Amino acid sequence: MNMSTPAVYSLIKPSSRWLEIPILLSFNLLLVALAQLAINLPLSPVPITGQTLGVLLIGMALGRVRGTAVVLAYLVEGAAGLPVFAGGRAGMAVLLGPTGGYLLGFVAAAFAVGYLADRGWDRKLWLCVTAMTFGTTIIFASGLAWLANFVPSGSLMTMGLTPFIPGALLKIAVASVILPAVWRFVGRK
Questions:
Q1: 161 pLDDT band (50/70/90 cuts)?
Q2: 40: how many CB neighbours lie within 10 A of its CB?
C-alpha cells in the first residue's frame, strides 16, 4: 500500500460545505451500520461490534477534524434517542452504562488516528497499522477504565479486553486493506 499523500479529506476541498455533507453523512451511516453488527457475549456486558472498524476508517480517511466530528455526531444521535448504538440501543443510559467508556473512547481514537493521518501516517501500510493499533488501544483503555465501575476487578480483563483482541486485530487488518478503496469512494486521486 503506497500512500503518497496525507489524509484524504485534507486533499478534498469542495467548493461548498454543502458538498461535504453527503460524504460525512455516509461515514456516519457506516458507523451506525457497523454498530448493528453486534454479538453479545455470555459473560460480558460489552458486545463485539464492527464500530471500531468504522472509527478507524473514519479517522484515517477524514482526518482529525472531520473524523472526530462524524464520531461525535454519532454519539449525539445515540444520546438523543436515535437507535444507533449496538443492537439498536439508544439514550444516555447507554453512554452512562458499561459500554460508555468504549463509546467515548471512539472520539479520542478518531481524533488520534485522524491526527496521525493528517501527518502522513496513512501513507504507508506499517504506519497505518501502527496508527490504528494506537487508536484501538485508546478505545480499550477508555472502555476498561469505565467498565471497572460495573464489573468485579478480577474479571475486568476477561469481560472487557481478552475476548475482543482477535476481533480488534482483524478490524485493524481489514481497515488497513480497504482504506485505499475508501479513498476512491470519497474521490481521492
A1: very high
A2: 12
